[in-house]
Amino acid sequence: MSAIRLLVLGAVRMHGRAHGYQVRGDLEYWGAHEWSHAKPGSIYHALKQMAKQGLLHAHEIAPSTAGGPPRTEYEITERGVEEYYRLLREALVTYDQRGDVKTAAVGFLVDLPRAEAVALLKERTRRIVEWRSGVLEHYVPEEGPEQLGHIGEIMNMWVHTADSEAEWTHGLIERIEGGAYTFADEGDPFVDVRTPDPNPYATGTRHPEDDL
After folding, report:
1. Contact 50, 75 (CB under 8 A)
2. I want to staple 209 with a disulfide (CB 3.0 to 4.6 A). Which of 7, 10, 44, 177 is the partner?
3. Whole-angstrom Cα distance, residue 79 to residue 55?
């Protein structure tokens, strides 16, 4: 799965309608340019591609009074909403060694009802245990990584990562079941999440398509 599709669809959906520079600003605020491939060129490419695929609708609005080309605003379509929730649910239950998809999913977790979020995270935990068991078919932690030479350090890392991930997921489930955060069936989940502008995490680097 590509994290960029989930990130862009989620950001557009959150705004209702947004131009590319707004989407880029959101993703930079979340630090997505550091932990995913959400660089300016990738963001604008994703917007255009998903508009061609019918997941977003591109609105061409009037140019500014200062002149320049018309700016394009994007709005998520019904198909786009379906794809967004499909990607979100898949990302929450899928376990692998990459962190970008998981991080994107956690960022949009509150778009789901609380009970569904808990159920998906419990399924994620089950899959982590299953994945870890697959590693242990070839590697015995008690015997140490040296049993497989230095390559054993890879499996050793995998086991430790899975254990840490399972522990973190259990903690998140407990916090959610304990009433933490505001979910989709309870009100606006994004109240007071963002600080006022200017964005403290913005890269400050301009891109040719920022004004389109």
Report:
1. no
2. 44
3. 5
* Spatial CB neighbours of 88, under 8 Å, sequence gap ≥ 6: 6, 10, 105, 108, 111, 112
CA gap 197, 191 in Å, rounded: 15
In contact, 140 and 155? CB cutoff 8 Å: no
Instruction: Tell me the two tokens of residue 198.
Output: 């200017």
The residues, any chain, with a CB within 8 Å of residue 191's CB and separated by 6 or more, are: 182
pLDDT averaged per 10 residues in sequence order, the chain, 212 residues:
88 91 87 82 93 93 59 93 96 82 92 96 95 86 80 84 94 97 83 58 64 56
Residues 6+ away with beta carbon under 8 Å from 3 = 32, 36, 37, 38, 91, 100, 101, 103, 104
How many CA within 13 A on the CB side of residue 69? 9
Select from 121, 126, 81 the least CA-distant residue to 102: 121
